[in-house]
Description:
Layout: H1 11-27, E1 35-42, H2 46-59, E2 63-70, H3 72-80, E3 90-92, H4 96-110, E4 120-132, H5 133-139, H6 147-156, E5 173-174, H7 182-195, H8 209-221, H9 229-239, E6 246-250, H10 251-256, H11 258-265, E7 269-273, E8 277-286, H12 293-306, H13 309-317, E9 321-322, E10 352-354, H14 358-370
Parallel strand pairs: 1-2, 1-3, 5-6, 8-10
Antiparallel strand pairs: 3-8, 4-6, 4-7, 4-8, 4-9
Amino acid sequence: MKKTHSKPTNPVLTSAGIIIAALGLAYIPIPGLQRTVIIVSGTELQAPLEQLEAKFEQENPDIKIELKFQGSQDAVSKFIDQKNDFNPTVLIPASGELIDELSQRYQAQNNSEPFYNQPQPIAKTLLVAIAWSERGNALFPNNSFSWQRVEQAMQTNNWEAVGGQKNWGSFDFLLTDPTRSNSGQATLSLWAMSKLNTNNINNIDYNNPAISSLFSTIKKSVYQPPRSTDILLQEFIARGPNDADVATVYESIALSRWQQSGKNQGKPYQIYYLNPTVETVATAAIVRQNVDSGTANAAKKFVDFLTQPEQQKVFVQYGFRPTDNNINLQSVPNSPWSQNIPGAEVNPSAKTLPAPNQKEIGEIKRLWQRVN
């Protein structure tokens, strides 16, 4: 019989083939093994999260991030009431107080822990006011924001009566819907404190007739308040002076959209720091409801990724203050704090207070819905 001789195998080529195959398995997602992590965030984080999503997926091809954006109060309420048509993995509302509210409501209904891990702070921002320069100069002649002056402008509904020009027409103030958005709730909390001449949230009496009258004045003056802060700012910029004069928004989006305001209206708005103001800390929580441990582990990778210095710098570029205190705001490339934005301050002297807690939010929503 004729013998057949097989060609000797080249060990170098074999090893190379094994390495290539291994790399392929490592970097090419295998169907059925890729984890999908659904992130529900407040709209104020949309721009940085969309940028960071692509970077994370490139570094972690076995994990797919799906981003969804809602008003912060909506995000909590829809999760508790199971009104989403999807199963969230991570919730990142605008403030840690809303995470506390979710935890208390969930445990009351289900008698179990709602989260896999301790919720993680992601980025910080302050509540500020913005005004078109001419309007701001007339309403705040000493360049210092005043709730009393805003209320006076609302009551007269006439710019000429508060130092403005007759052709400016009516006074138009914008805030978000306080039944759906954290910034609207924070606005009413600070305004109520000013009305009662206190800097202590615990001293606010929402049954006080003066507060009921104030809420009524505000509610009559704002038309169809938007559900989220970023939507409000986009409307403010698009409408411009005469249709939108003063608004309360987060410092982060006020800084990140400032150049857009100049392009749309010729002259950009100015930022005013409230004193006291509210600091909100966007906080990420990995939920247990309908989330298995493998998906929770994938979610933890993403949350940890967001807190690393390089990603924190991306948040700074979008006007957020980092949770990493070692990062210098002005040294980050493309930082808004190095762009000479009118009114912007690296270290504002205003006293900062926490966002309204669950009890106060309940009082604010109740009174807002009750007044005419």
